[in-house]
Structures are given as C-alpha cells and as structure tokens.
Hints:
Blueprint: H1 9-19, H2 28-35, E1 37-42, E2 45-46, E3 50-54, E4 57-59, H3 61-77, E5 83-88, H4 94-99, E6 105-106, H5 114-117, E7 120-122, E8 127-136, E9 151-155, H6 159-172, E10 176-180, H7 183-191, E11 197-201, H8 202-210, E12 218-220, E13 226-230, E14 233-235, H9 239-255, H10 257-266, H11 283-290, H12 297-301
Parallel strand pairs: 1-5, 1-6, 9-10, 9-11
Antiparallel strand pairs: 2-3, 3-4, 7-14, 8-11, 8-12, 8-13
Amino acid sequence: MKTHLLITGATAAALLLSVGNACAQTDTLKKIRESGAITMGVRDASGAMSFTLGPGSYTGFHVEVCERVIADLRKALQIEKISVKYQLVTPQNRIALVQNGTVDIECGTTTNNAARQKDVAFAPTLYVEGVRIAVKAASGIVSAAQFSGKAVAATTGTTSVQLLRKLKREGAGEIAEVLAKDNSEGFLLLESGRVDGFAADGQILATLISKSREPAQYRLLDQVLSVEPIAIMLAKGDPAFKKLVDQSVVSLARSGEAARLYDKWFMQPIPPHNSKVGLPASALTKAAWASPSDKPMEEYEAR
C-alpha cells in the first residue's frame, strides 16, 4: 500500500507565509504555483539512482523519490497538476544550476557535505553511499595500497577526485589521476585498460558492472574510501519549500516506501536491460530511514 504525506491547505498557506518579507530568500513554491511546473535536475548515468532511458526520459531511485515529493507538493499547493521539466546536470554544474534557480530540485547523486551546505540545502538522506574502487578481477589488485605507479580514474567534480588525492597524501604512493568527464567515460577507461581502477560511488560502479558485456571481469574493492549521504539538493534560503520536501521525504522513510523503492531499484531487474544491481541496503542506509536527517557527511565520519 502506497503511503504519501498529505498536507492540508492551511499548512501549505502557513509555510508560504513563512517566506514572508525576506526578499533575499527564494520562493520556489510561489514559482511552482504560478507556472504550474517544476524543474528536476537529473543525471544520465548515475547508476540506479538517476539515469536516462532515451531523449527526455529519466528514471531511477532518486528520480522516483522526487516524483513522490512533487505529488505531495501538488496536494499541498492545491493545484491540479505540476508539469515536470527535466534538466540534465553534471558534477561540474549541478550546484550552480540549483543556486541560480534553473533547477528547483536536484535528484541525482549529490553528496551532502559541510562545504556544499554553505551554498545549497539538502533534504533528509534516503541513501548512504560508500565510495569504492572498481578493478578488473584478473588484475590481482585487492587494496588501494597496490595502486602505487598505476592509474585510477575519477569523474571530474565528484568527491572521488579529492579521495584519490587523499590516498596519495596518506601514503598510497604515486597514483596517476585520470579525470573522466562522466561516469560512463570513467568505466570505459577501466574497460579499455587505460586505467587500473575507477573510483566512484559504490552503487554507480555496481550498476555499470551489471550492465557491462562481461560483469564477471570486474570486482569492487572491499575498502570504502568515504561514507557519504546522498540527498536531494535544493536552493538555500527557501525554508517553506525545504519544509514541504523534507516532510515528504520523511514520510517515505517512515512509511516503509523508501525501503520498497530501494528494493525495486537495487535488488530487482531494472531497465533498459533488466539487469540487477544486486546491492542490498547498508546498515547506514537503513539507519537513515529509521532516523531521517539532513546532517552532512562529516557527521557520518565522526560516528
């Protein structure tokens, strides 16, 4: 049974009024009410979280979560329909597009960290990621310590780039850092043998491996480089909009719907090739469902 947050018109009106006279704040709810539309930031190849099925068509765990949120926003605003416009974002431009209002709700694979919270806001986390490294099974590499003198790819604009540099600083040796423009290119570098490893979110790697020609040729190193909460990104300084989004996300978590959606996207066959990611929810992800929050990555590391 699908359970969604129902918000009364009075509550919505009160939230709209809370934006009040603070002219410096963004008023996304007013924008949605007047235009009847919302712009969703999406990724074309971010594993099972957000990906394309073809021109203008996007889906995935985080995309579906945002669709549920938008349905709740429509009820709260008491309007007949909210049209969804998709805006493809990249690791390089996603924060800027949220800041300048081009994107109202970003539904890709963005890590909520303290540095980014200075520029944007985040909804409560429904997926806690571990950044890992994919290698070819025949390489014999079982630890990041074995990358000295070898090349590892990471996607430009992601936290994986900083994590590779941290590995080098902490004594992993001289690792040749190869920057990919996106996740698909990063995996292609590994597939073609131009790098010895590809560092990215674990679910992105698992999804790319599951969709590759020969999945058995690849493996993920057990070592987790960083624990990162992945969350919906919103404009900073828009408390009314954030409150409604937060309430919807918390409802998904507490009703069990987030867990059901996770099973659908990570444990069952998914389009377009009906392949399984096969990545069970981690203990940290389950804890995020039990106690939803928008705390940054640094607070997870401190646990």
